[in-house]
Amino acid sequence: MTKKLMIWLGVVVGTLLLFVIIGKNAGWISSDNTEKVSTEKVSKRDIVEKVSASGKIYPVTEVKISPDVSGEIIELPIEEGDSVVQGQLLAKIKPDIYVAQVDRSVAAVNNSKANYLNAQSQLTQIVVQFEKSEKDFNRNKDLFTKKVISQSEFDVYEAAYKSAKANKEGTQQAVDASKYMVSSAEASLKEATDQLYKTSIYAPMSGIISALNIEKGERVVGTSQFAGTEIMRIANLYKMEARVDVSENDVLKVSIGDTCEIEVDAYPDKIFNGVVYQVANSSSSSSTNISTESVTNFTVKILLDQSSFVDMIDVKKKKFPFLPGMTASVNILTNHVYSVNVVPIQSVTTREDSTAKNKKTAKEKLKEFVFVFENSEAKKIPVSTGIQDDEYIEIKSGLKGDEEIITAPYSAISRRLKDKMKVTKVDKKELYKDKKSGTEISVEVD
Fold first, then answer.
1. Which residues contact 217 (CB under 8 A, 6 or more apart)?
2. Are residues 156 and 215 in the same domain?
3. pLDDT tens digits for 33-55?
4. What would the pLDDT profile of 309-351 be if each residue is shown by its tens digit?
5. How many domains does one find in the chain?
6. Residue 71: enclosing H or E segment and its boundaries?
7. Considering the domain boundaries, does residue 405 fall inside one?
8. CATH number of the domain within which 169 lies
9. CB count, 10 Å around CB of 372?
10. E strand or H helix at 298
C-alpha cells in the first residue's frame, strides 16, 4: 500500500511540475524569466535628416603662379600672407638675356627693312629699263613688219625686251621676299619683347599670397619648358569652400541649396554655416585600407557663409581663420519635417511579413514593425517610416500617436520578441544590470 502511494505521489508531483513549466512558457503563471523591456511613448518632434561627410577646406578661387620664362629671381617684393591687387608686381626675373634678344631682333628688323628698301630701289631701276626695252621692241616690231629692218636687227630688240621683262619679274620677287623678311623679323621682335615683358610677373587677380615657394636669388624654369616652376599661389581667403566626399548611397539625397553645419578640426567648439553649391556628376573611387573593395564617392562643394567667420579675420596681422587643406566634418541638412510622430530608431525592426503571399520574394515579404506594449504583451504593429536623425525616426502610418512603444533591448526587438508575447516592463537601467552581481552594465551585448 505504501509503495503504491509513493508511486501516485510521484506521478502527481511530476504532473504538477510539468504543468508549472508549461504554464510559465505559455504565460499562465507569472515568472521572472519573461522578457524584460523598457518602453517610451510615441512623441511629436521635428526631424532633420542629415548626410554626414568629411573633407577639406579650400579657397573657392586659388591661382597657381608659374613664370613663362626661365631665369634668376632678382626682385621679390611680397611675402606669404600679403594682400595683393590685380596687376601688382609679384616678382622679377633677371632680364639681361631677354634684353639682348630684343636688341638682336631690333637689329634684324632694321636690316630686313634696309634690304627691302634696297630691293624696291632696284625694282624701280629695272622697271625703267624694262619700259625702255618694251618701247624699243614695239617700235622695231612695227618696222620689221614693214620690212624696214632685217630679222637679225629685230631679234636683238626682242631679246633685250625678254631679258628686261625677266629681270623685272625676278626683282619683283626679291622685293616680295624682302617684305616677308621684314614681317618675320618684326614677329621675332614682338616675341622677344613679349619674353622680356614676362620677366616681370604681375598678379592676375586680387587676393592673398597663400603660398610662396621661392626666395630671391633662386632660379626658376619657365612653362615653355615642361611644367615650369610653381613659384606662388594667390587665393581669395575671404571666400572659402569645403570639398567633401559623399557616398553613392547618400549623394542622391543631397541637392544644391541644402544648408550645412561645418566643423573644422582647428576650431572644435565652433560650428560654421554653409550651403551646397555644386554636386559632382561623376564619381571618384578609392580603395579602402581594410580590403581591396573600392568605395564610390561623389565630391560635394559647400560654400562657407562668410558672416560665420568674418569676425575671425585680422588683415593687419595677416591672419585668416582658414588655411587651404584644413580638415572639416560636415552635416548636410537634406530634409526637414515638423511635429510628426516619432519613435526611437532602435524600436523599429525589419521582419518577414507572415501575411505576405508565397509568390513574393523574400525581399518583398520584409516589412517594418514596432512592438507596442499593451496589457503586459508585445503587440507587433506594421508601420511605414520616413526620415530620421541620430535618435528618432518618423512614423508615417501604423500608429495613432498615443501608443507605448518597446524601445529596448534591441536584441529582443530585432530577434526574440513575438506578437502577443508576454513581457515585463522595467526601467531602462534595469536592462543593463548583471543578474548575478546587480552591477549596472552600460553597453548591451547581444
1. 72, 73, 74
2. no
3. 688 888 888 888 888 888 999 99
4. 888 888 777 788 888 889 999 999 988 889 888 889 888 988 8
5. 3
6. strand 71-75
7. no
8. 1.10.287.620
9. 19
10. strand 294-304
